[in-house]
Amino acid sequence: MARFKRILVVLGATLTVLALAVGALFTWLWTDADVSTVGDARFDRELAIPPLAPSRVAEDGTRVFDLRMQAGETEFEPGRKTPTWGFNGSYLGPTLRAERGEKVRVRIHNTLDEASGVHWHGMHLPARMDGGPHQPIPAGGRWSPQWTVDQPAATLWYHPHPHGATEQHVRRGLAGLFLLDDDRTARLPLPKRYGVDDLPVIVQDVRFDGARLDGDRGLMQSVGFLGDRTMVNGTLRPYRQVGDELIRLRLLNASTARTYSFGFPDDRAFSLLATDGGLLERPVPLERVQLSPGERAEIVVRMRAGERVMLRSFPQDNYGGAWQRRFSGGDDSFDVLELRAARHLRPSAGLPQSLGVLETPDGSDAVRGRYFDLKRSGINGRSMDMGRVDETVTRGTTEVWTVRNSNGMPHNFHVHDVQFRVLEVDGEAPPPALRGPKDTVFVPHGTVMKLALRFTGPADPGTPYMYHCHLLYHEDEGMMGQFVVVEKGGAATGGGHIPAGPRHAHRH
Ligand code: C2O
Ligand code: CU
Ligand code: CU
């Protein structure tokens, strides 16, 4: 009997120790998963501004740019060389800029030792010029897409889109801005001196493993790779001296998986001017703007003479359950960019009351609806197949797409070629930050959104555009589908031939 008691005591003690150990491990995992760089370090590096890409105008009036995709090394920290990729340099790329109505051609040379590609995110253009997985550029190859810019002024961007390897190519540094201008915007009194009172802000999260950029996804990170610090335009701990009262920030979330909620520590209101595809109808005062991967926002912030103010990313309460918030980045916070105001600021013109009229459809002329169920395993239960066209739409028509996420984790939804209007979020009118032209929307778990899209062509039944989750790990895993635009009564001629591309190119 005594012996039996002793066994029980020992067993009990062992179980208690085990439970404590599991508890401690869990507490450690839970606490460790919460990433914050707030107040950690002095922001003492001057923010790099991507150069404006030089261009020349050919005889037929086409504006021609040259982009060279290349491997190189970047010193994010002095004396520490990190292997990276870039356009016309070792990391990121120059800012392309063109006007509405202009013909543009971009001559791309891929000098990398693997196939890649360049997609024009947010651009309305023929499917053959889109730079999706059907237009790969082989190692050493060249590609010169051309099109006519026919959409409002906006902050767009470009990045590779190789099938199954987009995350890796973007994370290594292949991304840049493509700014569009138009007459209407040129006449508005907005901050518009590039690099002075109109700053590009390309935000990425990174993690270093020695000198190397790490890309490993944490065990419980269902969204993909999450870094432990951020950089802007490739600058760690960046600051920027500013000399004007009003500063326009063109925010691009170029991270592969992380969603941010930008604002300022004193909760000052700033004005939201533009979303992905251009200006809102009027500036909207906000204290936070949330951007999931691929989304852009243009904001204007008022500076006080002599102050230093941090652009910060705050924890997000619409990120799903406590588990998702903790392990997939929703609880995280980052100091992103310090703005240092001069002692004497140049006065800025006040922002206009009205910015213009939206060109996005309001859905009233929609000819049909479609339904998209977002799951990590695929959209509408199907994983991406380059040989399968999922949807066929008619040129010149408007449709309403209903997008739903009940997958227990955050996703977003991006559609190539169009700028759409968000009609409804869970049956209600969208919040002000979702009322401008959009090509990418954050769709948290438990959300249903209705979008109005108009497809203005040109028709090309043999070449698909993509729609997908822009959390690039999900996209690469197959959370993507294809649509073609056809003339009335036409049919898709198939995903057509599947180019010899970097299908499941090597991963790290
Ligand atoms: Cu920014 Cu299909 O991509
Ligand atoms: Cu895109
Ligand atoms: Cu996703």
Short overview:
The protein is mostly beta strands and 508 residues long. It has helices spanning 2-32, 166-171, 183-187, 322-327, 472-477; strands at 45-46, 55-57, 63-77, 80-87, 96-99, 103-110, 119-121, 142-143, 146-148, 154-159, 176-181, 198-206, 208-209, 212-213, 229-232, 235-236, 238-244, 246-253, 260-263, 270-275, 278-286, 289-291, 296-302, 308-313, 334-346, 366-375, 378-379, 391-394, 397-405, 411-415, 421-425, 440-443, 447-455, 465-468, 480-486.
Description of the structure:
This protein is mainly beta and 508 residues long. Among the domains are: 46-182, Immunoglobulin-like (Sandwich); 366-507, Immunoglobulin-like (Sandwich). 11% of the residues lie in helices and 40% in strands. The chain contains five helices and 35 strands. It has helices at 2-32, 166-171, 183-187, 322-327, 472-477, and strands at residues 45-46, 55-57, 63-77, 80-87, 96-99, 103-110, 119-121, 142-143, 146-148, 154-159, 176-181, 198-206, 208-209, 212-213, 229-232, 235-236, 238-244, 246-253, 260-263, 270-275, 278-286, 289-291, 296-302, 308-313, 334-346, 366-375, 378-379, 391-394, 397-405, 411-415, 421-425, 440-443, 447-455, 465-468, 480-486. A seven-stranded mixed β-sheet has the order 16-15-12-18-23-20-21, with no helix packed on it. A six-stranded mixed β-sheet has the order 1-17-25-24-19-22, with no helix packed on it. Strands 2, 3, 4, 6, 8 and 9 form a six-stranded mixed β-sheet that branches. The N and C termini lie far apart (59 Å).
